Amino acid sequence: MQARSGVVGVVVLLSAAVLLCAGKPTLRKERVRHETAELSGRPHQDDGGGDGGDNNNNNNSFKYDHEAFLGKEEATTFDQLSPEESKDRLGKIVDRIDGDKDGYITTSELKAWIKRVQKRYVYENVAKVWTDYDLNKDDRISWEEYKQATYGYYLSNPEEFEDATDQFSFRKMLPRDERRFHAADLDGDQGADREEFTSFLHPEEFDHMKDIVVKETLEDIDRNGDGHVDQDEYIADMFAHEDGGPEPDWVKTERDQFSDFRDLNKDGKMDLEEIRHWILPKDYDHAQAEARHLVYESDLDKDQMLTKAEVLENWNMFVGSQATNYGEDLTRSHDEF
Description:
mainly alpha, two-stranded antiparallel ribbon, 4 strands, disordered N terminus
């Protein structure tokens, strides 16, 4: 593994974006992070339906349900399955969702499943790079292993980087990564198991890592090092004003956004809590809403839980003719779940 590749993977996370305004110039960079970002923002209008029929009017809603329940990419791979095959595989998925094996799927269990499906790319990413960092093959990654795999060359040749001034230079990234690693190391044993290493590489996905996400965002944008983000720093993070011409209209709009909605205490700058409010908004919980919707539409006896029979009765809403490669998934390891 080349040393720089590990750092690039970490740095990429810092600029992960969810574009809020369609059609903006590509120079714009967004930092707002939404949990389970692949879920559509479209809320459901539960109307007491749920017969699981083939009404064409339900196609768009079912497409959303399939993507939320199975994952967007995976939901396109069941197009060739017969209804019987879909139902058979759905039954196996239901068994996995029923965590306490009591024969009922609760809203909480369904929500947890949806969140896990949407995070699957995270765990697959970790699985792909795990062996690059687990140098002694003990199924744990120590800080020293990560540091050696990522920064070994640079630590051995520091003279090559004495003039580095970029804020993402290795001299700055090393202590930053170490701080993040220790935050992910919940049991404090100086090593990371797979879950801890996942939270290290993808901190935005874990509640206990969100303080780190906020702090790193502040450090990225705070060019004058005063511990705050003023309006010019906020804009500079989104837009490189290189040609000296007038600012695009969207930049002017963002200046207004900063004054009206980002700078909550109106002191002309954002502190850590204001940055948290900005990049980690307490938005509508898409996974919770989808879980409630699926239960509402399929709960024939209205006990606010689902049996396997109720799920299969309304199979078209869960998988229909558009499902996932869970047939393949059921034959492989689900350690990441």
